[in-house]
Each structure stands twice: as structure tokens, then as C-alpha cells.
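Hi again,

Forgot to attach this to my earlier email, sorry! This is the prediction with HDD bound. I've pasted everything inline since the attachment limit keeps bouncing my files.
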Amino acid sequence: MSIKKPAPEKSAMAGTDTPDRANTNAKLESLEAFRSDATGQALRTNQGVKIADNQNTLKAGPRGPSLLEDFIMREKITHFDHERIPERIVHARGTGAHGFFQAYENHSALTKAGFLQDPGKKTPVFVRFSTVQGPRGSGDTVRDVRGFAVKFFTDEGNFDLVGNNMPVFFIQDAIKFPDFVHAVKPEPHNEIPTGGSAHDTFWDFVSLVPESAHMVIWAMSDRAIPKSLRSMQGFGVHTFRLINAEGKSRFVKFHWRPSAGTCSLVWDEAQKLAGKDTDFHRRDLWEAIEMGDYPEWELGVQIVEEENEHDFDFDILDPTKIIPEEIVPITPLGKMTLNRNPDNFFAEVEQVAFCPGHIVPGIDFSNDPLLQGRLFSYTDTQISRLGGPNFHELPINRPVAPVHNGQRDAQHRTTIDKGRASYEPNSIDGGWPKETPPAAQDGGFESYPERIDAAKIRQRSESFSDHFSQARLFFNSMSDHEKEHIIAAYSFELGKVEREFIRARQVNEILANIDLTLAKRVAENLGLPAPTQGTIEVRKTSLERSPALSQANLLPGDIKTRKVAILAANGVDGAAIDAMKKALEAEGAHAKLLGPTSAPVKTADGKALPVDASMEGLPSVAFDAVFVPGGAASIKALSGDGVALHYLLEAYKHLKAIALHGEAKQLQDLLKLDADAGLLAGADVGALTKPFFDAIGQHRAWAREPKAKAIPA
Ligand code: HDD
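C-alpha cells for the complex follow:
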């Protein structure tokens, strides 16, 4: 067989390499030696032999049997046979990006960590976002916790902040992690469901483990269906320590706050997206970076002085508790910007290996028993996932700091150590490499000398025993629409649970202790008797509400990077399209023109406008808002087009801002939609933009939600 060989493609990143990006990213420079560009190169075997024929196996005659000596075919197939590596046990589905972190100022009073000292210094980072439950090919928008793992390539070694988009966790002790993961993963007999927690084993476990109550209510909230990875907060979850040059230690909790604001999809939209665009989140992140809309997060810490460790009505070592921001505000440390997509998904996103135990001088652990277990688990999992203990040598994992020690050999060793002495002390190699004593700056790592005087026991601290007060605080802190979403999520998930005793246990023994109204509403939706009281006396928190927890208070205040669909058919008012596009661009938002098909649409004055996609190709769930320009013929065509009408109804149902210009108002009348703060009509595009943009800035028209329920899904 002979096939036509296509011309070599230009690298996808060609042209986007500005000198600034290349120069400022030391990690990318260190990756340079490993990046392979085949442009203009001969096809060769792994031994470097040029290949003359890549189409045909070596055979005894053109119709004869294949020959074992064909080393070219065997090498190729053997390599292919081993292309897959085990996926991560949890967080298998993910995506990543490169960027940098920059401190706002010198934070030496707080920590001696070098990357937090010099505001002029850009520390390279690689971030991997993930879902938890589903396998590598599962949907992005399922209801789940999102992983938020950041590797800082500091001059003093790698620091990994391996967090989630929720500030607490399901369990208090690492020994329960395999139990929790086995429960949340798909059912063992039929491997259903993929990517979700709406099944018996999950609810069986969490209804028997009250310490999960707080995290589960976060997972039933809108936080579990983020609109994009760019609009998620991140949390280090555990309490850590920051230590300064004088050896003073303070407890801290790490927070990431996105400059795009924190917001979510609506549930019906999330479910549809899981089918219509499985890659919705990774695509959004990829496109934002390609377009130069670099996502940003502010890193901050809540600081607790050592002497105040016991001042709270919870234990700061308990990973099922937050420190409310109203009690300890966040001190901003610096900003992270993601400005470069990976060159190769497998080499970078799949092979990156995080571990909470990767810390640098100036940072240390607390005794949170969940964190302590994690310090062991991550390195251990990489050994089987990445095929041995040399995973730190993979290009994406290599520190920018030099690595010298006596560790040798093992599978996949790539470093060629030149010295003779792989032990310490030695005199043969002049004693090198040598220890570095701890110092104010650039010293060797020294653990914080915390005094421990205790009996060796297996026991949960009494201070970890309150499981409901913060779950209640979370529910009380939600806006009305967020509370409704939580009730709906519990009802949906428990409705999928087959065993009624599990549903009842969750309602009576967990939800009733969080909030009776919540429990009653869910019981009603499940057809269960409504509980009249909780099963225990729940501790009172010092705070009734924490406004910082509600996403209603976390809007960005602008419409930057928001996506608007413009629906048009032949005869559309071209000037209205131009005016709206210009106004959106001026605000940093993006518009896409969609037609009934992928063919150009003709404007009323006869111009052919190329469209970005057909309405079916880019459905309403891919956008934040919809604009329909006037033009009598265009509106007549859209009025008779089921796809266009569904587009508007669906955007309305998902509470999106819709602006109807000129004749497009007829569509509102046809679909019998009531005007509201997010559904606007007018003859003048200029006058429409302000209320339209205000509505987009509100993220969704929440007041519409009760009415939107009547719209068929
Ligand atoms: Fe974990 C992966 C976050 C508890 C054991 N975890 C993993 C990832 C994130 C988290 C973001 C994906 C990293 C990546 O993108 O490669 N995990 C958390 C958080 C936890 C947590 C925020 C609680 C606060 N994890 C936890 C415990 C254990 C593990 C208690 C075990 C005792 N986690 C793992 C793991 C994974 C992992 C099995 C799977 C793949 C990997 O590590 O590299 O070792």
C-alpha cells in the first residue's frame, strides 16, 4: 500500500512563543533539552536508524508470511503495546498548564521560603486540575470535587501544593482513604456510575461516617459543578506551617482565589455538557491560554500564631474544618498566572507527579493525620504508576534546582552520575555532595522542632468529634438559590440510591443534624417520613453565617473572557452584529457568530459573513449569554428553526443573559418568555449593551429560576 504523505505540520505553539514567555520561565528552559521537533527530520527507529519504508512489514514475497527479523515493525508494535500506563487511582481525569508565580512583596517575616521573598522573581509552576472519581476519559462537568495541584519549581527545590477546590475533606484520618475511595468509585459489579457519586456504596459509606457530613454538603453544592477551571477557588485544605529565618513558626491555611470570580454551571447544563462536550473544562482552559486570556489566582494564607492554636471552637488539625475568613482573614502573598499550554499531554500532564511531602525550607507540616498519611501515599503510588522510583527525572518533574545525592540505579534511570562514591561520607570524591547546615537563607532543610511527648495510641482526638456545626454553618451561609440547589442535589443523588435504608439513614442521621428544613425537603422528595429532630445536640459555632462561603459574593465584577453566542440567519442586520461584537471586545468578552449551518450567512445588505460554527456545532451550553440581532428575514428563518428555538429556550432555562435586538423580540413572544433582568429586548444595540453586560456580570439570572423550571429540559 502506498499513502500520500502530508506536508509536515507547523508546531501548534509556533508563533505564540514571545521572548517574554520563554525568558521568564526557567522550567520551560529546563524542558528545552527534552523537547523534540521533527520538522525537516528523517523518520528513524529508536536506535537512530533511518527508515526507508513505514508502510509495509518485511514479508517473504508480496503475498507471503511476515518475517520475525523485521526489527522495524517489531520495535514499533512493541512500543505501541506498552503505550498506556496505569491511570491515577483517583484524580485520573485532568488537564494542566504552565505558568509562573510572583510574590507581591517580601514575606520574610512569615517564611524563609525563597520564592516568597523577592517580588521581582518569577517562579515557574505547573498546575494540574482534575476530577476525583472518574477515569481518564470521563466527563469534565460531572458533580465531583476538583483537584487543584500546583508544582512550584523554586530555586530551593520543588514545592507541591496538592489541594482541592473545596477547603475540607471527607475523612479525618488517612487510614480511611482506601475505604472512602472504594465507596465513591463506581460499583464493583458493573462499574457504574462513571464520574459520579450518585450510587449506593458512596451514600452507604458517608451516611455511616458522620465526619464526612461537612465535605458532602460542599459536594452537593454548586462548588461541585464549577463553570470552568479558571473560576474555581483552590485550598491547601490542611493546616501547614510557615517558618521564618528566626525559626518562628506560624500555622497557615493556603487559599487560591481566581481573578475570574468563583461561579458554577447549573445542574441540567452540567449534565448536558458531560455529553455534548466531554472536554468542556480542558477546552476552556486551553483556549483561554491560547487566546492570551491568561488565568490568574491570588495565593493567600490564613495565619494562626502558635499560641492561638487552641482559640477556636474546632481543632485546626481537623481537615473537616475551615477557619472562617470572617474570623481569620486571608493575607495575600502573590499571584499565579497560567500562560502556556503543554506541548505534549502525556509527557507533561500524565507524567507529572505531585506529593504533599514536596516542601522547601520555610514550609512545614502540621500533625493533621490526613496530611501525615498523604506524605507517604503519593510517592508510593508514583512508583507503580510511573514504573519505578526515578519519576523525579521525568522532564516535567525535574526541579530547576540541581539534584545530587547517593541514590543510584533503578528502572528508567536517566542521570549519568560521574563520581565513584555513591555514599556519604566519602573521601574518594572529595566528600561531595555534602550536607548544607540550616541557615537563614539557602540553607539545608530543617524540620520544625515541635516538641512531642505522648503515648503511642490509635485514637481520634476528642477535639475532632463535632461533625455537624460547620456543615450547618455552610448551609446557613448560602443564598436562597444555592440552598435550593443543595436540596435538589441531595434529592437527585439519594434518588439514585437503590436501598431505602441508606436514603433514610442519610436523611435522619446526617441531614437532620445539619438542618431540619434541609432534611425535611429532601425526605419529601424521596417520599420518606420527614424527621422532626436531629439525633444529637450539635455544637453552636461562634459564627452564624460566613458570607465568604457563598458564591453569590464571589463575582468578578466584570465580563472579561465571557463567551456570547450571536444567532443569525440570512437577512440578519450586519451592523447590529458589528456593534455588539465591538462592545463585547471592549470589555474583554468574546463573541462567536452561529448560523443554521456552517455556511456563511448573508446580511440584509448582501454581505456574506463567515460563521464560527453552526448552532448545533456550538450549543447554548458552551456559552455564557446569547445575542440575537434583528433583520426581518433572519428572524423569520430562526422562528421556524427548531434548533434556534431550542437554543434560546435552553439558554433561558440555564438562566443566561439573552439580548434580543429589533425584530428578534418576536422570538420572545413566540416562546412566551417573560422579560427579566437577564432577558432584554430593544431596538438599539447601544442601549441594550449596558443591561446585557450587567446581566452577564451577574453570571446567571437567579430570580428567573422558579419560572425556568417550567421549561422542558
Ligand atoms: Fe490525594 C491524587 C488532593 C487526600 C492519595 N490527591 C491527588 C490529586 C489531588 C489530591 C489534587 C491529583 C494530583 C495530580 O493532579 O496528579 N488528596 C487531595 C486532597 C486531599 C487528599 C486535597 C485531602 C485533603 N489523597 C488523600 C489521602 C490519600 C491520597 C488521604 C492517601 C492516604 N491522592 C492520593 C493518591 C493520588 C492522589 C492515591 C492518586 C494519584 C497520585 O496520588 O499521584 O496517592
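The pocket of HDD is lined by residues 88-91, 94, 128, 130, 147, 149, 162-164, 169, 174, 177, 237, 319, 354, 370, 373-374, 377-378, 381 (CB under 6 Å). The radius of gyration is 28 Å.

That should be everything now.

G.
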